[in-house]
Amino acid sequence: MAGLRSVLSGRSVAGQVFVLLLVMVLLLVVAAVVALVLQAQRDNSEEARNRSLAVAEAFANAPGTIEALDSPDPTAVLQPRAEAARKRSHVDFVVVMNTDGIRYTHPRPDRIGKHFVGTIEPALNGEPVVEEIEGTIGRLVQAVVPVENPDGEVVGLVSAGITLENVGGATEAQLPLVLGAALAALALATGGAALISRRLLHQTHGLGPHEMTRMYEHHDAVLHAVREGVMILDGDGTLLLANDEARRLFSLPEDAEGRHVRNLGLDPATTELLSSGRTATDEVLPVGDRLLAVNQRPTDPAGRHRGSVTTVRDTTELRALSGRAEESRERLNMLYDAGVGIGTSLDVARTAQELSDLAVPRFADFATVDLFESVLAGGHPDAAAALRRTARTGIAEDAPLYPRDQQIHFVESSPQGRSLATGRAVLEPRLDEAPGWQAQDKERSAQVVEYGIHSLITVPLRAGSLVLGVVSFWRSRKPEPFDEEELALAEELVARAAVSIDNARRYTREHSMAVTLQRSLLPRTLPEQNALEIAYRYLPAQAGVGGDWFDVLPLSGARVALVVGDVVGHGLHAAATMGRLRTAVHNFSALDLPPGELLALLDELVGRIDQDEAQDEHVAPVIGATCLYAVYDPVSRRCAVARAGHPPPALVRPDGHVEFPDVPAGPPLGLGGLPFESAELELPEGSRLVLYTDGLVEDREHDIDVGLERLREALAGAGPSPEETCRAVLDSQRPGKAADDIALIVARARALPADRIAEWPVPADPAAVGELRAAVTRKLAEWGLEELTFGTELILSELVTNAMRHGGAPIQVRMLYERHLICEVYDASSTAPHLRYATMTDEGGRGLFLVAQLAERWGTRYLPAGKVIWAEQNLPESPGALS
Q: Residue limits of the PPM-type phosphatase domain (predicted)?
């Protein structure tokens, strides 16, 4: 029973053979049944074709069929005949139709008079056709034959058909017999397989295929696969078995097995050890030019059967392989370190130095990197130009190699010159025998050889089709020269470094372009004005050029606008976008709009830019731009501020108190949908307004609240002047290089003295113009500006007259004595005046033309209720300046 269970389990070889035999018999039985069924189906189909064709031809050739087709009512004559023929012949239908396929007969009367479903074209040509189709009553075979008159003309068609299931019958009758025979064969096969498997189970001791395979693999591995010699000896010292490795190591003859070890020609020490049968562990024996480690154990530790097993290992080759493996591992580690340690920055010189530092002393005693001058500047290499020694590393500093930063012209015969010309690495194993290398500099070459440097590898720094420079590896301490394997390693090492150096070169070029663009877009000097004492700082980010900007814009009425903005991101796109926004602010400021309205126009502009650039997948949108716009009036000491997603300004009062005014935070530019609100601040004279970008108060390690608090502490301890304030803020906020751009403006408020301001209300009476001119004349004399009397009187006369004619009451006149003499006329109307050229016959229209000719600048500024028309004149002593 145990043997039967083992056979049936299927885990042993006998069980698997038993199962295999049963499966084979079962497959044969199934195949026989399937073949019988398929044959029966083919026979059924053939029988259906023959029967349907015979019935159709018999009915077509039956007497009276042609006459019935020619009768007035063929259906009345042929329908009974067709049904009788269908029942006698055991077909499913007999259909008679005309040559158009219209049925005269059908088992279902409702289908008489309808088109026949099937192929009739061959029958119309006199040829019968048989086809197998999927009909409404199942899979069927139908035949269509022509009905021909004595002249051979087809006058009708007859079709007979039968379904395949009605043809069968013989197969179903044979299936029980076939299945019975199959079961009997299966029972006999099972009994025979059980007998065979039982015998096989006894012979294999119940082992499974895996155990038997594993036993064979172990035996074969011990004897042949391992790189150890194996010898088995009996108790008398006769060699019973030796594998191929043992024969090779001991140089055994072909007929060594069966001979005593003393007759094998082995050296005495080896013979004594093998014949003794004693235990040995890694006992080293010199055999010829090899050192063999021998291990020996008895075959039966209990001592019932004498004999020994000896294993032999060649330690000479193992030591050589160990040395080569260690060398290969070191080279792989160096290549891995090159991928990690070279290219940590986007600086060309630093990347070259990282390459030379990695190579010394792991690969060479000295390493030098020479790059074209244009590569260091980020340009394309110029093969005709000189190279500069960019990096040099060595085990000593006194080697007579070219020093760092020296320009070098390599001659064509030198290894470096050949590498640059051919783009391939050059191996110079012995420098003292290389005249081409010595031709570079005979005196220095002699010094190099005398110093002990004796071998050289030069590898060009290639990035695609560009050769950026050449790398030289020098050897002095190791007596062996560089070989071909080391040449391949040098090429791989330089190839990895070349990618990083080329990336640094490209970055240097793009960075230089971006810096140039940014510097051209930022203000180089601030405009002259008296309303604010200003100091500023701009610190670019360590990672590259950003999009921060600032501006100081003089406005009409001695007012000054301060602007600080930030475009998120770095690179050319950020710098170019910054320039576009800065230009837009310049243009919008000329409209003298309130800060909130100006930011609304700027927001609309950014939205249009995004729409225009959305069609270009390579151009990023401007989303992320922020801006703060402030307008300070030195007459009222009021400052209107609005911001679009920008950090709030800081206000340092004259007593040193620091606060962050509550300025409504609008959305960043480009989002649209929300208005921008302005806040009115009163700036005492001597107070400092601090505007900045988020790079000053935000970083990856601290939140903006922490940055604002540090800014508050720095401002509280800063000196009173804007310069001292800038210095204190940057020293406390950013001790090292910033991760983002920083723009900082510190503006100390000044007030226009009251004796420099003159105001007059003007009644809506033309006679009041004369009184106004007299008052203006007296004020100009008081200020010492008599030279401007004529022009000022004329300007104010024209502006006041226009206000009376076209504006609305009240009318107010104001003069400001600042860097310019500013004349302003206020009226309650919002109608804007327009400059035009009057014709010879016009009685008016020349007022603004005269104002434009007499004034340096003039314009219109709109107020919540009315407008101001202003005109500026240069002062006579020093135009454009006020002491």
A: 529-749
Tell me which of 550 and 844 has the higher pLDDT: 550
pLDDT at 58: 84
Q: How many CB atoms lie within 10 A of CB 378?
A: 17
Chain-centroid distance of CA 772 in Å reads 73
CA distances from 233 to 304, 559, 631 (A): 15, 113, 108
What is the spatial distance between Cα 82 and Cα 59, in angstroms, rounded to a whole number? 8
| Alpha carbon distances (Å) from 518 to 38, 77, 540, 588, 628 | 86, 106, 10, 21, 20
> How much is the average pLDDT of 832-858?
62
Distance CA(56)–CA(89), nearest Å, equals 10
Distance, in Å, from the CA atom of 602 to the CA atom of 667, rounded to the nearest integer, reads: 12
Residue where the block lists tokens 């010492």: 784
Q: Reply yes or no on whether the pLDDT at 834 is more than 70.
A: no
Nearest alpha carbon to residue 133 among 64, 200, 52 = 52
Q: What local confidence, expressed as pLDDT, does residue 301 receive?
A: 65
Instruction: Give the Cβ contact number of residue 405 at 10 Å.
Output: 10
705 C-beta neighbours (distance < 10 Å), count: 10
Higher pLDDT: 659 or 525? It is 659
**Which comes out higher in pLDDT, residue 807 or 201?**
807
Span 51-106, pLDDT tens digits: 888 888 888 888 888 888 888 888 888 889 888 888 888 888 888 998 888 888 98
Closest CA to 548 of 533, 534, 538: 538
Average pLDDT of 617-646? 84
Name residues whose C-beta falls within 8 Å of residue 871's C-beta, 6 or more positions apart in sequence: 795, 799, 822, 823, 851, 854, 855, 857, 858
d(C-alpha 600, C-alpha 553), whole Å? 18
Residue 160 structure tokens: 């007979």
Give the model's pLDDT for residue 842. 41
C-alpha distances out from residue 361 to 416, 474, 475, 476, 873, Å: 21, 10, 10, 11, 76
Is 144:57 a contact under the CB 8 Å cutoff? no
**CA 493 – CA 786 distance, rounded (Å):** 82
Amino acid identity of 726? C
Give which of 731, 795, 804, 732 is closest to 762, Cα–Cα: 804
Report d(CA 260, CA 255) in Å as an integer. Answer: 11
For the chain, helix, strand, coil in percent to 5 are: 45, 25, 30
Question: Phi and psi (nearest 5°) for 354?
Answer: -65, -35
The tokens for 553 are 């814009």
Region of poorest pLDDT, from 10-14, 27-31, 53-57, 535-539: 10-14
Which amino acid is it at 420? Answer: L
- Residue 681, beta-bridge partner list: 639
Tell me the one-letter amino acid at 501: I
As a whole number of angstroms, the distance between CA 182 and CA 189 comes to 10
pLDDT at 507: 78
The whole-number pLDDT of residue 876 equals 84
d(CA 406, CA 390) in angstroms, rounded, equals 8
605 neighbors 872 (Cβ within 8 angstroms): no
What is the predicted pLDDT for the residue at 146? 92
Nearest to 113, CA basis, from 97, 93, 99, 126: 97
Phi, psi of 244 (to 5 degrees): -65, -40
HSE value, Cβ hemisphere, 13 Å, CA-based, for 292: 26
Gap between the Cα atoms of 397 and 87, Å rounded? 118
Q: What is the pLDDT at residue 305?
A: 58
* Residues 6+ away with beta carbon under 8 Å from 204: 12, 13, 14, 212
